[in-house]
Design a protein that fits this description.
The complex is a heterodimer of chains A (257) and B (357). Chain A is an alpha/beta fold and 257 residues long. Helices cover 32% and strands 27% of the residues of chain A. In chain B, the strands form two sheets. Chain B has a two-stranded antiparallel sheet with strand order 1-2. Chain B has a two-stranded antiparallel ribbon with strand order 3-4. Chain B is globular, with a radius of gyration of 22 Å. Chain B contains 13 helices and four strands. The longest helix of chain B has 29 residues. Chain B has one domain. The chains are: A alpha/beta (257), B mainly alpha (357). At the A-B interface, helix 2, strand 8, helix 4 and helix 6 of A face helix 8, helix 9 and helix 13 of B.
């Protein structure tokens, strides 16, 4: 198989008459960090939701890790090795860090008890600590509930999930949109750590500086279509903005929008 | 963020961030209420509420009163255990009292004796084939009827997406109707001897406390418990994490219904009769126990231990007012105030904690 961890062909999503995503052809190589940019409503989040199985696509194929996949739900995608940090934090406020990391895939004992099988707290705590060390995430007390944490700590917990489970692809949807300067920096450091570890990443972001700082390639969405696929070295902020606003459209995507 | 990040990944333990278990607050409230009654008792009736002041008996506590305190809350307490887990999912169950009524009538019909004082049982609901059955039959019927009602609640809430308040309100009216329709409003009496033993003496308390221990373990140490908290905490997150939320809610409401059924079995066995009005307002008493015990109506927070202490608080207040020879209406006024006070205190603590973080 090729070096592509993810490849989508003609990926399309219609919500009734609304064509939120139209014919997206996208590839991501192993270990590559790619940013997805575009205006609000350009189809970025829709694209992510089709890949992660949160929604079912209208048309098109998704090939992940060399196999065509049809995720029935986010858990399927996660089990296949796609970890997503959602725009709205998918954390349960009243649970602590290990509980959140392992939510929906708890380590258990006494599995014959079915839904009443026992939680293996110790194993989950050990794995959580290992994951936090790996990402360099610092949490004062992992037994604290998420409710008592700052926005940055919450985001770090969400990101630490990816490190705790040896995932093949991490998707982050605007991970720093709601964070302060220091917290953003910490999240960016974690992303760099993931890069060093050869983790593949799709980063949805509005932050031009961040994108140029962190990724190898930039894919621009506009009005549900991919309009540009740019290597970081061959482009600059002005160029990207031109694509985002529609002043320019990539040659290979001419006629797309 | 930075003020506490001197340790490596979660390896520090900041004592100031350690949270004080909410159950201790509830327990402190229980102690406070007991102390108030002790003081009022010493002033107005010259007796102690809980301690033995009678020289004839050689014990520290007034055991008879302790027994009454817990017996009177045990049967509703069993319901409160089920209601606690429902409220933790950010739901509510208004049907428990009516389900007790319906289950009492139906279960008791299977617990009747054939002969009363040498004559045919005058209250027999069914023909001779259904009389003098082993005690296990009415128990299983009771649990099954309660569970059925709970599962219907769960289906309405989880799959038909009807708000829990409305779904269980519907079940509350429906089940009460069933209770009255079952024997056209006539009481059902004369249970078998074995059946009568289920709720005799301290049995309700033993069953209540055993269930409290079991459900404490379930809520804290099993996947079921963790998912219950997760759903109440953030249902969208639970869904995204791959938890089958509708199926889980079906379990939660089903178990709550089954515990209502069990409580009906114990109640009819204790009273040796079933009446269609049984369990009236039990749902509210059960919710009150949970809320006083620190279970948040917004979901995600609360515990079985809290609910048990909440039940004891209600028991102490009920006994305390009788002990002070005050009328039942004062009792209800006080309970009303305490429920609102408990929620107000919880809100205040939450907002204070939010400001600190």
């Amino acid at each position: 198989m090729s070096d592509n961890i993810l490849q989508t062909t003609d990926l399309t999503k219609h919500y009734g008459g609304v064509h939120a995503l139209e014919g997206a052809d996208f590839t991501l190589q192993r270990g590559e960090h790619v940013a997805i940019m575009g205006d609000n409503g350009a189809g970025k989040s829709t694209f992510v939701r089709q890949i992660t199985g949160v929604e079912q696509r209208t048309r098109g194929t998704v090939v992940f890790d060399g196999e065509e996949v049809n995720f029935a739900g986010p858990l399927d995608a996660r089990e296949a090795g796609i970890e997503t940090v959602f725009q709205t934090l998918a954390l349960a406020d009243d649970l602590n860090v290990p509980d959140n990391l392992f939510l929906g895939r708890e380590k258990t004992m006494w599995d014959f008890l079915g839904p009443f099988r026992r939680l293996d707290y110790k194993a989950m705590r050990d794995d959580t600590l290992a994951g936090l060390v790996k990402t360099g995430v610092k949490i004062p007390n992992i037994k604290n509930t998420i409710r008592n944490m700052s926005g940055g700590q919450r985001q770090c917990v969400a990101i630490a999930r990816t490190a705790t489970f040896a995932s093949k692809l991490t998707i982050m949807d605007e991970p720093t949109a709601a964070l302060g300067v220091q917290e953003t920096e910490q999240v960016e450091n974690i992303i760099r750590t993931l890069k060093e570890q050869g983790e593949s990443l799709i980063l949805v972001s509005h932050n031009m500086r961040q994108v140029f700082d962190l990724v190898d390639r930039i894919v621009v969405f506009r009005r549900g279509r991919i309009v540009a696929n740019l290597n970081k070295e061959d482009t600059d902020g002005q160029d990207v903005v031109a694509y985002i606003t529609g002043a320019k459209t990539g040659a290979e995507y001419a006629g797309a929008a | 963020m930075s003020e506490n990040s001197d340790g490596v990944g979660g390896l520090t333990f900041d004592k100031s961030k350690r949270h004080w278990p909410n159950e201790l607050n509830v327990f402190a409230a229980l102690i406070l209420i007991v102390v108030i009654f002790e003081i009022l008792g010493a002033i107005y009736v010259g007796q102690s509420l809980l301690f033995d002041t009678n020289d004839r008996f050689d014990s520290i506590f007034n055991e008879a009163r302790l027994r009454i305190i817990i017996i009177q809350v045990a049967i509703v307490g069993i319901i409160a255990i089920g209601v606690t887990q429902v409220i933790i999912t950010a739901g509510i169950d208004l049907s428990s009292g009516s389900v007790v009524g319906a289950t009492a009538m139906i279960a008791m019909s299977f617990a009747q004796v054939a002969m009363v004082n040498g004559a045919d049982n005058p209250k027999a609901i069914f023909g001779p084939a259904f009389l003098d059955l082993p005690w296990l039959v009415p128990v299983i019927v009771g649990l099954a009827v309660g569970m059925l009602a709970g599962v219907v609640n769960g289906l309405l809430v989880a799959y038909a997406r009807i708000p829990p308040f409305i779904a269980t309100l519907g079940m509350m009216l429906f089940a009460r109707g069933v209770a009255q329709w079952w024997s056209s409003g006539n009481p059902i009496s004369f249970p078998t001897e074995a059946y009568a033993k289920i709720g005799a003496g301290m049995m309700p308390v033993i069953i209540f406390l055993s269930l409290a221990v079991i459900f404490h373990l379930i809520m804290n140490y099993t996947v079921y418990g963790k998912h219950t908290y997760a759903i109440g905490s953030n249902e969208a997150a639970a869904r995204m994490s791959g938890i089958n939320v509708p199926r889980h809610l079906l379990w939660v409401y089903g178990i709550a219904g089954m515990l209502s059924g069990l409580s009906a079995v114990i109640l009819t066995s204790k009273n040796l009769t079933a009446q269609s009005g049984m369990g009236l307002s039990y749902e509210l008493d059960a919710i009150a126990m949970a809320v006083i015990g620190g279970v948040s109506l917004f979901g995600g927070r609360g515990s079985i231990i809290g609910t048990v202490i909440g039940a004891l608080i209600i028991g102490v207040i009920t006994s305390g007012f009788t002990f002070l020879k005050l009328g039942a209406f004062y009792q209800e006024m006080a309970l009303g105030g305490i429920i609102v006070g408990a929620v107000a205190l919880d809100q205040w603590q939450q907002s204070r904690a939010a400001r600190k973080a």
